[in-house]
Amino acid sequence: MTAPRLYLIPGLGADGRIFERLRLHGPVQVLDWFEPLAPDEPLAAYVARLAVPIPPDEPCWIIGVSFGGIVALELGCLRPLARVILISSLAAPTERTGWVQLGAWLHLDSWVPVGALRRLPRAGEWFFGVSGRRGNTLFRELLTLLTPTYTKWALRQLFRWQGCAVQPVAHLIGDCDRVFPLGYRTASHVISGGTHFMVVTHASQISQIINDLTQDDTAGARFQRSPGR
């Protein structure tokens, strides 16, 4: 029996390099970001384009990090045979707290200076919990990928996300995450010392959790569901 394919979605502005330390069982495919067709392209339309590589009749796993987790849930609405795992993400709009609420109120997506983000890497490293020489180098490389159109579009989708009917099979949250703090959220797995960058810094632990979930046939049966929306 062939293992289900794992589709990985990186966080805002990141690419497949954030998954390079994961050791996952089964075929893996990264769904990298592309530019929105317009500054106001609806999330549903964007996700429909991102979903093209995933056959509608394919049982699979979709694993999303940070903003990629929100997109993973939306993909689950279009691919009912997919099961979703969130890492350092949000499972519902009610989990948007702190800076996300403030950013939505201030319409941060309209005036965020993307260039300034690249010029303040140390602040970003602290906020995201980046550590180690390789982690710092990777983070700074990822900052160069940010474009004004994509960054503002992604922030707008984060601030305005209405949620969807799909529920994740698992939600991995770090107890030291400053971007999306644990707070009162219910997580299936709380990673001790995990920051928002824990897919890199705690890759071994996260790999084990994912492999346990994806290879457990009873888990697959337990979480079968009907399509969202």
Query: Can you give the helix content as a percent range?
Result: 25-40%
> Ends: how far apart?
31 Å
* Count of DSSP H/I helices: 11
Main sheet specs: 6 strands, parallel
Low-confidence stretches: 218-229
- Strand and helix order: EEHEHEHHHHHHEEHHH
Q: Label the overall shape.
A: globular
Helix/strand structural class: alpha/beta
**For the largest beta sheet, what order do the strands appear in spatially?**
2-1-3-4-5-6
Q: What portion of residues belong to β-strands? A: 5-15%
Q: What's the overall average pLDDT, rounded?
A: 87
Q: Write down the Rg.
A: 17 Å
Extended strand count: 6
Q: Gist?
A:
The protein is α/β, with parallel strands linked by helices. Helix content is 40%, strand content 12%.
What's the SSE blueprint?
Blueprint (H helix, E strand, L loop, with lengths): L4 E5 L18 E3 L12 H8 L9 E6 L1 H12 L3 E6 L11 H7 L2 H4 L2 H6 L1 H8 L4 H11 L4 H13 L9 E5 L14 E3 L6 H4 L1 H12 L2 H6 L7
Parallel strand pairs: 1-2, 1-3, 3-4, 4-5, 5-6
